[in-house]
Amino acid sequence: MQDASGIGLLIVGLVAGVLAGMFGIGGGVVVVPALTALFSFSLQAAVGTSLAALLMPVGIFAVLAYHRAGKLRLQTALLVAVGLMIGGLGGGRIALGLPTATLQQLYGLFLLYAAWRFAEPRRWLAEYRAGISPSRTDADPTTGSDAAWWALLLLGLGAGVISGMFGVGGGIVIVPALVGLLNFDQKSAVGTSLGALLLPVGLGAVLEYNAAGLLDLRVAGLVAVGLLFGALGGARIALGLPAQTIKRLYGIFLLLMGLRFLLQL
Fold it and tell me: What would the pLDDT profile of 131-147 be if each residue is shown by its tens digit?
C-alpha cells in the first residue's frame, strides 16, 4: 500500500458518497477500485478498509434527507440490517479464503450483472425508439409492498455476504431486490437501503479483515469524512431526478467497473 494523501482520500470518499446518496449502495463500489488503482492496495486490503469506512454512520445526512421526503421504510431497514450483520461475517471469511485473481473475476461478474439490472438496456432501447423520455416513464409510487420478516432477513443475509466479500456495503443487492421483488419505487428503495446501512452492519467482517492485517484505519477515517458529506449531496441530486435516469447512470458506471475487474486493468 502506498502512503495515501489525505486530500486524495477525501476526494475518493466524496465521490463515493455522492454515488451512495444517489443509489443507496454504501460507496464501496467506488472506494475499493480507487484504493486498488490509485493507492496500490491489494483487493482484500481495499475491501477491509472500505468496510471499516462504511462502519461509521456516513449516510446519516442522506438518510435524514430521504426521511424528510417520505422515502424511508424504517421497519424494513431494521430487519434488513439484522441480516446484513450476520451475512457480512460470512462474506468476509469467504473472501479471505479465495485467491486475489479469483476474487477480482467474481467481483467483475457481479458488477456486470448489477449493471444489466440497473441500466435495463432492452427497455432503454424500446423507449428510445418510441421517443419516450425517462421522466415520462418514472412511475413514483410512495409505498412498497409488505414482506414477511424472514424474507427481509434473508435479503439482508444475502446482501451481507456480498458486502463482506466485496466491500460494497450491501446496497447493491438491497436496492434491486426492494424494487424488483417488493415493488418499492427507486427513491424509497435507496432511502431504505441507506437506512439499513446506517447501522454498523459490517462489524463482523471488519474484525475478520483487521485480524488478518488487511485494514488501514487512517485511510478508512479519511474516506469516511468524504462519504459523510458526499452522501448528502448525492441524496439531494437523486431526489430531484427521475428514478430511471439515476438507475441507468449507475448501470453505466457499474459496467465500466465490472469490465475493469474482469480484465484486471
Answer: 766 554 455 554 555 67
User: Contact at 8 Å (CB) between 63 and 194?
Assistant: yes
DSSP annotation of 135 reads: G
Range name among 52-66, 70-84, 87-101, 196-210 with the lowest pLDDT average: 87-101
Which residues, other chains included, contact 170 with Cβ-Cβ below 8 Å and sequence gap of 6+?
A: 26, 84, 87, 88, 156, 159, 160, 162, 163, 193, 196, 197, 201
Distance in angstroms (rounded) separating the CA atoms of residues 169 and 171: 6
**What is the tens place of the pLDDT at every residue in 20-62?**
898 887 788 789 888 988 898 988 899 889 989 988 888 899 9
How many C-beta atoms surround the C-beta of residue 166 within 10 A? 26
pTM of the model: 0.77
Whole-Å CA distances, 101 to 12, 112, 215: 24, 17, 19
Identify whether the C-beta of residue 51 lies closer than 8 Å to the C-beta of residue 165: no
- Residue bearing cell 485511510: 219
